[in-house]
Specification:
By secondary structure, the chain is of the alpha+beta class. The chain is globular and about 85 Å long. One of its GO terms (biological process) is carbohydrate metabolic process.
Length: 684
């Protein structure tokens, strides 16, 4: 068994039609959803299938409410004049995960063609197409057109009209570039063609280049390059570095990106979703110290904004599987924005420390929330704990005290400072409360400016605990250190939320807080899934056992957002094998995935929000931790692995103490060792 074999189960092979789910590929900095032809033929947004346009981290606009939003860049599509006469039939389309490549085989009335597409995971401004065609007459290969997206309708009812300027076609008609200006975005886009067999050239008008192949046979490479105008020369130089063997080099780069860490379970469907989930994570996030992608990555689905909370649901999977470079880059990015977030804390929340923006600014010098707020979701007090967890756990996995002091500590310290500034004691109380304006809870259906949001209490407790632990490790003694310890000793106001009849905590304080069965998210499970606080209390255990009763629609196989994926992770951390299988069995009845288990939707029935990478991160965590788990501090092997999964294999899974574990389960018995799987087999 190898990472390649573990991923092969998730390869997609299908005969799609024009209505099929568009596939998603990317490299962490840019990506796209491809249509049934392996191209980007849809113009604009199509219900149920989303958008087919390349997205890139550099192409963003600061718009309404001073919010930064990513925009679609361009599409590669058939030239409409040549498409219909070709009368194409899609023979087969595949996504080969280990190679990071889609392969689409087409037949036309005049010949056949194979279109391969991939994004280079190391040279991350580039997408590559390799095209083979063979015909019996001229016109066997219809012309292509590279179309800049100059009209976009996007978030908060914003309609942007842009322009393409400074377009240039090289004398040999093999390279074209121009500058796409959309709102505040100015982005260079380029196409270069190389031919190993036959001839492929471009012609250009003022809006888009047409790409045409001559001859009956051809093998061609198209390289698409994208970068902010400030990086124009860098990107164009890089474009010249590709040769006709670039697709092979791209596959090899993907093999390096995967590393060697994997799990392999004997349930083909569960294993396939594990493999696809990891691919979508790597397609969406790269080791770039820049704002990480939106919850649907670069697929063009959903919100074009970055959310720290969603990233924290993916981050533990990156750590477990050894993608520490990506995990570190997120923490380094947040550390670089500490000062801006401190200003936000003071000006908007009238608090100290660091409140991490709910919809995080992509660029610097942000005026976020100073020009009004699009909604009350922006004021979720629990949010500051999630960057702290990412920072703390990355420090543990890497074991690098110098890095932790420079990058992790400012993030953890800022979060703890924030919660210290907003906790208070009410008259006659021993425990500390939180009642702050403006505010909202994680449940989002529970109103505004309420007392003692359960999520905020959990986040405050976690942030204090984590700040103390990291300060001890780094031998620091900040002024607030004793205050944090004192608050934890007194405790936070969980008792005010306890509903004795239900045996659980309500989501906030007050008579109207009893939302049992009407919640959007199972906030009561946070200590089980998102914020490890230590030993579980009875209320949290009860909430787990009553989880199907907590949220709206759950009894009818309807789940908002990441709720079902959260139940899956909760079962994994509880060591509940039956609960884990029960959650997996809900995916199809809940319409939480498509019929082929290609991806996860953002919510049940929400077909317009495919490739919800947030839930894919939770899925990865759930299956990884069912095999190797240290969420509770001590190492547990096979903690939630169903008995029906008789043969399990894993290699290279990391734990917070910096150790790397490999092992296998044969006939119900585990054989585990530090290091590679070869050690286990040698011992056996």
């Amino acid at each position: 068994m190898s990472i390649q074999e573990a991923l092969k189960v998730g390869d997609i092979h299908r005969k799609p039609n024009k209505e099929s789910l568009n596939l998603y590929i990317g490299n962490g900095r840019c990506g796209v959803r491809l249509d049934a032809y392996g191209l980007m033929g849809q113009e604009g947004w199509v219900p149920g299938r989303g958008r087919t346009a390349i997205m890139h981290a550099d192409h963003w606009h600061r718009g309404k409410y001073a919010q930064d939003i990513w925009l679609p860049v361009a599409r590669l599509a058939w030239s409409e004049a040549d498409l219909e006469p070709a009368l194409m039939d899609i023979h087969q389309q595949s996504l080969m995960l280990h190679d990071g490549t889609t392969i689409t085989n087409l037949e036309t009335r005049l010949g056949s063609m194979t279109i391969k597409a991939s994004f280079h995971p190391e040279f991350r401004d580039y997408m590559l197409y390799e095209i083979h065609h063979e015909g019996v007459g001229e016109g066997a290969f219809p012309a292509l057109k590279f179309i800049p997206e100059t009209l976009v309708e996007t978030y908060h009812e914003q309609r942007l009209e842009g322009t393409l300027r400074d377009a240039q076609l090289s004398e040999d008609e093999k390279q074209w570039h121009g500058v796409l200006s959309m709102g505040t975005a100015n982005t260079v886009i380029a196409v270069r063609v190389l031919s190993e067999e036959g001839v492929m050239k471009m012609k250009s008008d003022s809006t888009a280049p047409e790409i045409r192949a001559n001859g009956l046979r051809g093998k061609h490479l198209l390289i698409i390059g994208i970068a902010a105008e400030a990086r124009k020369e860098e990107m164009l130089r890089g474009l010249q570095g590709f040769g006709t063997d670039a697709m092979q080099h791209t596959r090899e780069a993907w093999h390096r990106r995967w590393g060697n860490a994997y799990i392999s379970v004997p349930d083909p469907q569960a294993q396939a979703m594990w493999a696809r989930s990891l691919f979508y994570v790597l397609a969406s996030y790269a080791p770039d110290s820049r704002c990480p992608a939106a919850p649907m990555g670069w697929s063009g689905s959903g919100w074009p904004l970055s959310f720290p909370q969603d990233l924290s649901y993916i981050h533990p999977a990156l750590l477990r599987l050894g993608h520490l470079d990506i995990a570190r880059s997120w923490v380094e990015f947040y550390a670089s924005r500490c000062e801006e977030m401190r200003l936000l804390s003071g000006e908007i929340f009238h608090a100290e420390g660091t409140v991490w923006a709910w919809e995080f600014p992509i660029g610097t010098a942000t005026n976020y929330l100073r020009e009004g707020s699009p909604n009350w979701y922006q004021y979720q007090l629990h949010n500051s704990a999630y960057p702290a967890r990412m920072a703390y756990e990355t420090a543990q996995y890497t074991g690098d005290a110098t890095w932790a002091l420079e990058h992790a500590w400012p993030v953890v310290y800022g979060s703890a400072q924030f919660y210290r500034s907003i906790v208070h004691k009410e008259a006659g109380d021993e425990a500390w409360s939180i009642h702050w304006t403006p505010s909202m809870g994680q449940d989002e259906l529970g109103g505004e400016n309420a007392k003692n949001y359960l999520c905020a209490l959990y986040s405050a407790q976690y942030s204090f605990q984590t700040a103390i632990r990291l300060a001890d490790q780094l031998r620091l003694h900040p002024a607030e250190y004793e205050q944090w310890k004192s608050i934890l000793k007194d405790g936070l106001a969980f008792a005010k939320l306890y509903d004795a009849e239900l045996g659980i905590y309500t989501t906030y304080e007050g008579r109207e807080a009893r939302q049992f069965g009407e919640q959007k998210h199972p906030v009561q499970l946070n200590p089980l899934t998102f914020l490890p606080l230590g030993a579980l209390d009875t209320a949290t255990e009860t909430a787990y056992h009553r989880r199907a009763e907590l949220c709206y629609g759950a009894g009818n196989s309807f789940y908002y957002g990441w709720t079902l994926a959260d139940y899956l992770l909760a079962a994994s951390h509880m060591g509940d094998e039956e609960g884990l299988l029960a959650s997996l069995e809900e995916f199809i009845p809940a319409n939480y995935t498509d019929s082929e288990w290609i991806q996860l939707y953002e919510s049940s029935n929400l077909l317009d929000a495919a490739f919800y990478v947030t839930s894919h991160g939770l899925y990865l965590q759930a299956l990884n931790d069912a095999v190797v788990c240290d969420y509770w501090g001590d190492l547990k092997i096979g903690h939630a692995s169903p008995a029906a999964w008789e043969q399990i294999q894993f290699e290279g899974l990391r734990t917070m103490d910096g150790k790397i574990w490999s092992g296998l389960k044969v006939e119900g018995e585990w054989k585990v060792t530090e290091g590679g799987l070869a050690n286990v087999k040698n011992e056996a």
